């Protein structure tokens, strides 16, 4: 009985993880599409309302995106998504990306993406500076 | 029976005196947290109002206590969050950021400065306490080791830097020093300016546009200078102002770095001298 209960908990946990993992990968794939391929119609899917407001609104954010060079090939953060974790409260997710690809304006950046759930979907709520 | 009672009473009294006289080591971290620093008894010299904040702490996390005299450097950071982020929110992020094997105790910085970007009016400029100065920060990079001066080396040799968890007997952690150098977090405090002062980039979606770079306002620069000066008046060994990417490769603190010279000049105007 005890063994069955433990097995059930393990299966449920794995399912939850798999579901979050899938959602996180989708989120960062969409993030790439916005940032790299300028598919700005996905902005609302990717970012929280608060994030967009804090960054001057959606229109201003779209203008910023268009300042970056458009990249056709898929070689963005989605494919570089290294790991993510859920906070103990389960309210916040942190996602790390590989830093092998240096960004000229923003050198070896170890910041983490802050991801929260909004309207039943995972969305990026910003980043937080590195340090430890 | 009466004799036994008297013996117990006498031995307890002896033990209490032993603590007072310093013959017995401090029993737990909570008591260390309260040890006073009377470096400059003429304090306070009020240059800035500092708001208090009650932070949630992770009691399962380890932290290191140090005498404030160990600290000689103010390190400037940006939070990379929105400029309207509150100290409590940063604390929440930092608590959530730790892992099961390496949990974070509380907000990594010793002070948080809320200030609008140049040209904006919100949020209201304000300095808020972060983690107490007696607790080593978690901001300069845990693998960054820097040289100690003779006084810092003496404090270290006297085993006055102790680590542990709340309600635990603190212990001496020899790994804080490597090849005669000490972890930068032990001799510095982190001052974070809320906001994202780095450019928009693939890995920094909250960064500024090339059309409108973000700079610290005059008020923010002045607040950093006043706060640093206030700290130097209280802790005369505080003599350097540095910035995060002085210690390792990071975009933090963005454009604020180019204002450090100006901040030192402002601090001079308040009678302080920083290198």
Question: How would you portray this structure in words?
Answer:
The complex is a heterodimer of chains A (132) and B (275). Chain A has helices at 2-35, 43-46, 49-54, 58-67, 77-80, and strands at 81-86, 92-97, 112-118, 121-128. With 132 residues, chain A is of the alpha+beta class. Chain A has one domain: Nuclear Transport Factor 2, Chain: A. In chain A, strands 1-2-3-4 form a four-stranded antiparallel β-sheet. In chain B, α6 packs across α8 (260-269). With 275 residues, chain B is α/β, with parallel strands linked by helices. Chain B folds into two domains: 1-25, no CATH class; 35-269, Lysozyme-like, CATH 3.40.80. Chain B has helices at residues 2-21, 29-33, 87-97, 150-157, 184-187, 218-234, 244-247, 260-269, and strands spanning 50-51, 63-65, 73-78, 111-114, 126-129, 145-147, 162-164, 171-172, 177-178, 181-183, 188-193, 240-243. Chain B is built from eight helices and twelve strands. The termini of chain B are far apart. Chain B has a six-stranded mixed β-sheet with strand order 1-5-4-11-3-12. A three-stranded antiparallel β-sheet of chain B has the order 2-7-8. Classes of the chains: A alpha+beta (132), B alpha/beta (275).
Sum this structure up briefly:
Chain A is an alpha+beta fold and 132 residues long. Chain A has helices at 2-35, 43-46, 49-54, 58-67, 77-80, and strands spanning 81-86, 92-97, 112-118, 121-128.
| Rounded Rg of chain B | 21 Å
Query: Overall 3D geometry of chain A?
Result: elongated
The CATH topology annotation of chain A reads as Nuclear Transport Factor 2, Chain: A
What is the CATH-assigned architecture of chain A?
Roll
Q: How are the strands of the largest sheet of chain A arranged?
A: 1-2-3-4
The CATH architecture term of the largest domain in chain B is 3-Layer(aba) Sandwich
Flag low-confidence runs of chain B. Answer: 8-28, 30-44
CATH superfamily annotation of the largest domain in chain B: Peptidoglycan recognition protein-like
Radius of gyration of chain A: 17 Å
The number of distinct β-strands of chain B equals 12
Alpha-carbon distance between the two ends of chain B: 67 Å
Strand content of chain B: 15-25%
| Largest sheet: number of strands, sense, barrel closure of chain A | 4 strands, antiparallel
Helical percent range of chain A?
A: 40-55%
Please tell me the total number of domains of chain A.
1
Order of helices and strands of chain A: HHHHHEEEE
The oligomeric state of the chains shown is heterodimer
Average pLDDT over all residues of chain B: 85
The total tally of domains of chain B equals: 2
Distance between the termini of chain A: 44 Å
Helix amount of chain B: 25-40%
């Amino acid at each position: 009985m005890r063994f069955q209960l433990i097995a059930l908990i393990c299966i449920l946990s794995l399912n939850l993880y798999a579901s979050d993992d899938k959602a996180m990968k989708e989120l960062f794939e969409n993030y790439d599409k916005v940032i790299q391929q300028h598919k700005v119609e996905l902005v609302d899917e990717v970012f929280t309302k608060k994030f967009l407001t804090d960054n001057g609104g959606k229109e201003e954010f779209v203008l910023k995106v268009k300042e970056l060079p458009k990249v056709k090939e898929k070689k963005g953060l989605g494919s570089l998504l290294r790991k993510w974790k859920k906070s103990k409260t389960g309210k916040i997710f942190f996602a790390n990306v590989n830093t092998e690809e240096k960004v000229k304006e923003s050198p070896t950046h170890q910041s983490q993406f802050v991801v929260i759930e909004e309207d039943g979907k995972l969305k990026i709520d910003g980043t937080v500076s590195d340090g430890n | 029976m009466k004799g036994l009672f008297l013996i117990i009473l006498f031995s307890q009294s002896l033990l209490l005196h032993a603590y007072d006289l310093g013959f017995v080591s401090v029993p737990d971290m909570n008591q260390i947290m309260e040890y006073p620093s009377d470096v400059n008894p003429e304090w306070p010299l009020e240059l800035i109002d500092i708001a208090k904040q009650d932070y949630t702490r992770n009691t399962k996390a380890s932290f290191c206590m140090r005498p404030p005299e160990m600290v000689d450097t103010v390190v400037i950071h940006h939070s990379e969050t929105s400029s309207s982020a509150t100290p409590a929110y940063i604390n929440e992020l930092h608590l959530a950021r730790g892992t099961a094997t390496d949990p974070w105790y509380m907000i990594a910085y010793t002070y948080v400065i809320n200030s609008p970007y140049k040209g904006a009016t919100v949020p209201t400029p304000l300095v808020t306490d972060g983690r107490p100065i007696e607790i080593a920060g978690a901001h300069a990079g845990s693998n960054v080791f820097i040289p100690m001066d003779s006084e810092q080396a003496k404090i270290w040799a006297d085993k006055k830097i102790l680590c542990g968890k709340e309600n635990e007997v603190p212990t001496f952690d020899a790994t804080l020093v490597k090849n005669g150098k000490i972890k930068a977090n032990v001799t510095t405090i982190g001052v974070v300016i809320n906001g994202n002062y780095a450019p928009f980039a693939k890995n920094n979606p909250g960064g500024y546009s090339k059309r409108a770079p973000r700079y610290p306002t005059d008020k923010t620069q002045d607040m950093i200078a006043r706060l640093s000066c206030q700290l130097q008046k209280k802790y005369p060994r505080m003599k350097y102002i540095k910035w995060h990417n002085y210690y390792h490769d990071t975009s933090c603190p963005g454009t604020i770095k180019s204002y450090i010279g100006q901040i030192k000049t402002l601090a001079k105007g308040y009678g302080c001298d920083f290198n």
